[in-house]
Amino acid sequence: MAITKEEVRSVNPSSVAKVDTKLEIVVIPVSDVDRAKEFYGRLGWRLDADYDNGSDFRVIQFTPPGSGCSVIFGRNVTAAPPGSAQGLYLIVSDIAAARKELLSRGVDISEVFHDAGGVYAGPDQPYLFGRLRVSGPDPDHRSYRTFASFNDPDGNGWLFQEITTRLPGRIDSAATSFASANDLASALRRAGAAHGEHEKRTGGKYDENWPDWYASYMVAEQAGKELPQ
């Protein structure tokens, strides 16, 4: 079901905790530690740790590029059944590029798709809650609406979700940031294309204040506010 802007605005800001609480670790249950290590390394994720006490405990930590949250797995790390972690989201600004990257690394990943009924939330089960998966990106290229999915060797389920414009209130416009050089480059390309249309509307005249226009566009895009015309 799609989330409306009215529903987003109805959230009471005073109910939000004032102390920063950052999600840092997600535990992934696996059956073969070395096989999982090879897979997540093949994704291009950074290996942060591989601690083995030599007997009954081993923990491995990987971090996706640009992510503030890492995953851990290993031996005697969790009692959850291998493959039971589902609906793990990886947010990207260019889903076609992200999918192409994984394919180049030999990872089996679905075609890009969207949900005909709205936002595709939760684990990757196409017919859950009446979902209707449609091949290809969201026709209007809206944020939160385009996906691709893949599994690790144990069946733990991951989804790419493309987000270029955040819903209002999801990010402070005064703290605009980008997780990676690729995200920043993508934002600059979108701003450049939009500025080209802006120049057409203003008679094709060179805009000497284009850096200010780019900055306004990129800040508004991240904050989910009205974009400059």
From TrEMBL:
SUPFAM superfamilies: Glyoxalase/Bleomycin resistance protein/Dihydroxybiphenyl dioxygenase. It comes from the Bacteria. Residues 22-163 form the VOC domain. GO terms for molecular function: dioxygenase activity; lyase activity. Pfam families: Glyoxalase. It comes from Tunturiibacter lichenicola. This is Catechol 2,3-dioxygenase-like lactoylglutathione lyase family enzyme.
